Each structure stands twice: as structure tokens, then as C-alpha cells.
């Protein structure tokens, strides 16, 4: 698959604003569902790695709430991998950092150990993105 090498722009911020709202409300599965559409629509755009990281972090938290440590660990590992892709492909822009608390999100994900206990997700669980501006 050939990827379009783009950067995170205002259009992308608009596309994920509802998913971010759901994440901030603690509706992690609903966030996952909401972000799946823009993630799939941008299947050939490397910006999808941003959506993917958020989807997988939300899914990890959904598993944490259900006390499914194996599921939470698996999604955490995948979310961290997507953050690496975001950096590798140079997708991140000041817009992303300024409008979504992106650095804090990345730091919290990476702070969780590779073999976490359920309680290790608590700080990420209480994290709120800045409100995405449409």
C-alpha cells in the first residue's frame, strides 16, 4: 500500500473532534467507534496513524475498565507503535500539539510500563484532550 505523506491539518482536527469529545467523557468504546470512520476513510494517508493511536489508547482503557489486562496491554503496545509511526512519518504539526495536548498524551502512553498492571493505566484514564476546535 502506498501512503500519502501528509501532515496533521485543520481538516483532520475536524474529523476527530467528536471522537475526542467521547474520549474526554470516558466513553472509550464509543470513541473507538467514532474514530473508525475517519481512520478508514484515510486508509492511504499516513495521518491515519494519529487516529489509530487514539483508537488503540481508547480501546486499552476500555479493556482496563473491564479488568481485561491482556487486552489492555495488547492495545497499549499497538498504540505506542502508532506513536512511533507518527514521529517516523513526521505527521505531527504544531496544530496537533496546540489543539489536543498531544505531547501530554504521548508522554502518558509511553510512561506506562510494557508489562503494566491495571492501575498503571489510571493516569491515562484521567487524561483529557484539549477540546478539538472544529
What does this structure look like?
The structure is a single chain. The protein is mainly α. The protein has a single domain (10-126), classed as TTHA0068-like (Hyaluronidase domain-like, Orthogonal Bundle). The chain has 7 helices and no strands. Helix 1 (10-24) runs antiparallel to helix 2. The longest helix has 20 residues, at 69-88. The N and C termini lie far apart (30 Å). The mean pLDDT is 93.
Q: Give the H and E element order.
A: HHHHHHH
Evaluate the radius of gyration: 14 Å
Number of domains: 1
The CATH C-level name is Mainly Alpha
Shape: globular
> Total number of helical segments?
7
How many angstroms separate the termini?
30 Å
- Please name the CATH topology: Hyaluronidase domain-like
Looking at the overall shape, the CATH architecture is: Orthogonal Bundle
Range of helix content? 55-70%
- State the total count of DSSP E strands: 0
Strand fraction equals under 5%
Major β-sheet profile: none
Element layout with pairings:
Elements: H1 10-24, H2 28-41, H3 48-65, H4 69-88, H5 94-100, H6 102-111, H7 122-126
Helix pairs in contact: 1-2, 2-3, 3-4
Short description:
The chain is an all-alpha fold.
What descriptors fit this protein?
Hyaluronidase domain-like; mainly alpha; 66% helix; 134 residues; 7 helices
Amino acid at each position: 500500500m502506498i501512503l500519502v505523506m501528509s501532515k496533521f491539518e485543520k481538516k483532520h482536527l475536524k474529523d476527530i473532534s467528536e471522537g475526542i469529545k467521547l474520549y474526554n467523557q470516558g466513553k472509550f468504546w464509543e470513541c473507538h467507534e467514532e474514530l473508525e470512520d475517519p481512520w478508514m476513510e484515510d486508509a492511504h494517508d499516513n495521518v491515519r496513524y494519529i487516529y489509530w493511536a487514539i483508537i488503540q489508547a481508547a480501546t486499552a482503557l476500555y479493556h482496563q475498565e473491564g479488568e481485561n489486562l491482556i487486552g489492555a496491554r495488547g492495545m497499549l503496545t499497538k498504540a505506542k507503535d502508532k506513536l512511533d509511526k507518527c514521529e517516523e512519518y513526521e505527521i505531527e504539526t504544531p496544530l496537533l500539539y496546540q489543539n489536543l495536548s498531544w505531547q501530554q498524551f504521548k508522554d502518558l502512553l509511553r510512561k506506562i510500563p510494557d508489562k503494566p498492571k491495571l492501575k498503571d493505566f489510571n493516569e491515562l484514564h484521567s487524561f483529557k484532550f484539549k477540546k478539538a476546535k472544529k
